[in-house]
Design a protein that fits this description.
Elements: H1 2-25, E1 27-28, E2 34-38, E3 41-45, E4 64-66, E5 87-89, E6 111-113, E7 121-122, E8 133-135, E9 143-144, E10 157-159, E11 181-183, E12 202-204, E13 226-228, E14 248-250, E15 272-274, E16 297-299, E17 305-306, H2 313-322, E18 336-338, H3 347-392, H4 401-406, H5 410-414, H6 432-437, H7 449-457, H8 460-473, H9 475-492
Parallel strand pairs: 3-4, 4-5, 5-6, 6-8, 7-9, 8-10, 10-11, 11-12, 12-13, 13-14, 14-15, 15-16, 17-18
Antiparallel strand pairs: 1-2, 2-3
The chain binds 2-acetamido-2-deoxy-beta-D-glucopyranose (2 copies).
Length: 493
C-alpha cells in the first residue's frame, strides 16, 4: 500500500513541475518575445532574435525592455509607446543615429545600454533625459559635443570604454552635476585628460596609451576619490600632483621608475596605492610617504627591486610596509630581483645578509673584547686586592738592637706571630701552658735545626717533654718570644 502511494507521488511530481511552475513564470507572446515579472518589474525579453523592428502586440507597460543582440539599425518605431520603461538594453545592435526625441518622455528610464553599437560620435540633444546610467562602451566614438552631458542632470555612471576617444573638452562634464563614475578605459588618450567636475568620484582611464601625466590633471575634480591609470605608458608621476580628496591611486602596469619625497606630498588623503608591475628598482624611502598619514594599502608586486649596496631602506621601508597593520598584504612581493646572490630574498633578508652579516662578525669581536676585558679586569683586581691585603698587614716589628744582639734571625721569626694573642708575662720564660698556646714555627724551622731533627725522630709524647727544655734553653726561642710580645703591644695600642 505504502509503495503504491510513493510510486504515485513520484509519477505525479514531474507532471506538477512541468505544468504548474513554468506557466507562472513565463508567458510566450505570439512573436516569441518572453514576457515575465521579476522583482515586481514587468520584463519583455526580445534579445537574440535577429529582429530589425519590434513585433506587434507587446505589453507597452513593460518596465524592462531587453532588446540586445538584434539587427536594429535605427531605433524601432514601436519603442515610442513604452513610456514606463525603466531599463532599456539595446546593446549589440547597429545603431548610429542620435537618440529620438521621444526619449524625453521616458521619465522613468534609468538605465540605457547602447554598448556595442555603431556610434562614431555622440551628438547633443535638445531635451533633458532622466537617465542615471548610460552605457556607450564598445562603439567607435571619437568625438562628443561639449554640451552633450548637460542634458543628463541625473547621470551618475557613464561608460565610454572601448571607443576611439583621443581627447575630450575640459568642460564636458561640468554640467552633469550628478556624474560620479566615468569609465574611459580602452581609448586613445595620450595624456591624462583634465575635466571640470565637482561631483566625479571615480575616474577610470585604464589601457589608454597615456604617456603624459600633467601636474594639474586632478585639480578640476574636487570630489575625486579614485583614479585608475593602470596599463598605460606613464614614466613618471609629476611632483606635487595635487588632490585634496583622492584616496585611491592605481598606477599599476606603467613604466614608472622613481618616486621622490614630492611625488605624494600633495595627496593628503591617499589611502590605497597600486604600483604593481612598474620599473622600480631602487627600494623606496619611507620619507616618500611622510605626507600620507592615511595610507593603508600599497601594492608593489612585479617590480624588479635591486637590493644592491648597504641600503638601509631595505629594512626601514620593509618595516614601514609590513608592520601591524600591514600596508602590503603579500609580503612575498617585497623581494629582491638583483643582485643575483640575493634574488628571491625579501628586502629584510637581503639587508640582514649584507649588513647584519658584518654586524655578526662585529659582535663576535665585541664578545672577544669583553672576554679580554674581563681577564684584564680579573688580573687588575687581584693585583689591587693583593696590594690592599699587604698594606693592611701590620709592618713586621722592627727588631730592637737588643733582639738583634740576641738573635740575628729574630726578624724572620716575628713575621709568623702576627695573630699571637697569648698574654705573656714580662721577662720570664713561658710556662708549659703558654708554650703550648704559642704558634708553631713553620717557615723558620730551618733556624732551629736541632729542634727539627729531634722532632722528626721522636714521637709526640717525647717531643712535648723535650720541647720544654728547648724553649727554656735555646736563645732564639727567647728572642722570638720577646719580639712576639712587642707585636702584641703594638696591636693593642
Ligand atoms: C550592457 O550590455 C552589455 C552586453 O550585453 C553588458 O555586458 C553590460 O553589462 C550592459 N551594461 C549595463 C550598464 O547593464
Ligand atoms: C652579494 O654580493 C655582494 C657583492 O657582489 C656582497 O657585497 C654581498 O655581501 C653579497 N650578499 C650575500 C647575501 O651574499
Amino acid at each position: 500500500m505504502g509503495l503504491l502511494i510513493v510510486s504515485l507521488w513520484l509519477w505525479l511530481l514531474p507532471a506538477m513541475v512541468l505544468s504548474g511552475v513554468p506557466r507562472e513564470m513565463e508567458e510566450d507572446t505570439e512573436d516569441s518575445c518572453r514576457s515575465y515579472i521579476h522583482e515586481n518589474l514587468l520584463y519583455i525579453d526580445c534579445s537574440d532574435r535577429g529582429l530589425n523592428d519590434l513585433p506587434e502586440g507587446l505589453d507597452i507597460n513593460a518596465q524592462v525592455l531587453l532588446l540586445a543582440n538584434n539587427n536594429f539599425i535605427t531605433y524601432p518605431s514601436q519603442l515610442e509607446k513604452f513610456t514606463k520603461v525603466e531599463i532599456m538594453d539595446l546593446s549589440g545592435n547597429r545603431l548610429t543615429g542620435s537618440l529620438p526625441a521621444y526619449y524625453e518622455n521616458f521619465k522613468e528610464l534609468k538605465i540605457l545600454n547602447l554598448s556595442n553599437n555603431n556610434y562614431d560620435s555622440w551628438l547633443s540633444s535638445d531635451y533633458s533625459l532622466s537617465i542615471k546610467k548610460l552605457d556607450l562602451s564598445k562603439n567607435k566614438i571619437n568625438g562628443i559635443d561639449e554640451d552633450t552631458f548637460s542634458k543628463f542632470p541625473r547621470l551618475a555612471i557613464l561608460d565610454l570604454s572601448e571607443n576611439r576617444i583621443y581627447d575630450l573638452p575640459i568642460g564636458i562634464f561640468e554640467k552633469a552635476t550628478s556624474l560620479e563614475v566615468l569609465i574611459l578605459s580602452r581609448n586613445y588618450f595620450s595624456e591624462v585628460p583634465k575635466f571640470q567636475s565637482s561631483s566625479l568620484k571615480n575616474l577610470r582611464l585604464s589601457s589608454c596609451q597615456i604617456t603624459n601625466f600633467q601636474v594639474n590633471s586632478l585639480s578640476g575634480m574636487q570630489s575625486l576619490l579614485e583614479i585608475d591609470l593602470s596599463i598605460n605608458q606613464i614614466e613618471s608621476i609629476p611632483d606635487n600632483l595635487a588632490s585634496n580628496s583622492l584616496q585611491e591611486l592605481d598606477l599599476s602596469y606603467n613604466e614608472i621608475d622613481t618616486l621622490t619625497d614630492l611625488t605624494f606630498s600633495s595627496l593628503p588623503h591617499l589611502a590605497v596605492l597600486d604600483l604593481r608591475c612598474n620599473e622600480f628598482k631602487e627600494v623606496w624611502s619611507t620619507s616618500h610617504f611622510a605626507s600620507n598619514p592615511f595610507l593603508r594599502e600599497v601594492h608593489v608586486k612585479g617590480n624588479r627591486w635591486s637590493c644592491e649596496g648597504f641600503n638601509v631602506n631595505l629594512l626601514l621601508t620593509y618595516e614601514y610596509l609590513t608592520k601591524e597593520p600591514p600596508k602590503v598584504f603579500d609580503k612575498g612581493s617585497l623581494i629582491c630581483y638583483s643582485p643575483s646572490n640575493v634574488t628571491q630574498m625579501s628586502w629584510q633578508q637581503a639587508y640582514i645578509r649584507t649588513w647584519h652579516a658584518d654586524e655578526k662578525t662585529m659582535s663576535s669581536y665585541t664578545f672577544m673584547a669583553v672576554i679580554i676585558g674581563m681577564i684584564i679586569g680579573v688580573i687588575l683586581t687581584s693585583f689591587v686586592c693583593r696590594f690592599l691585603i699587604s698594606s693592611n698587614r701590620p709592618n713586621p716589628p722592627r727588631p730592637t738592637p737588643e733582639t738583634t744582639v740576641l738573635n740575628g734571625n729574630a726578624t724572620q721569626a716575628s713575621t709568623e706571630s702576627v695573630v699571637m694573642r697569648v698574654p705573656l708575662r714580662e721577662d720570664l720564660p713561658p710556662t708549659y701552658d703558654e708554650a703550648l698556646l704559642m704558634p708553631r714555627l713553620n717557615s723558620s724551622f730551618h733556624s732551629l735545626p736541632d729542634f727539627v731533627d729531634e722532632d722528626a725522630n721522636t714521637d709526640r709524647r717525647n717531643r712535648r717533654s723535650r720541647s720544654i727544655g728547648d724553649l727554656t734553653e735555646t736563645r732564639p726561642r727567647v728572642g722570638d718570644r720577646r719580639s712576639v710580645r712587642r707585636t702584641v703591644e703594638v696591636r693593642i695600642h
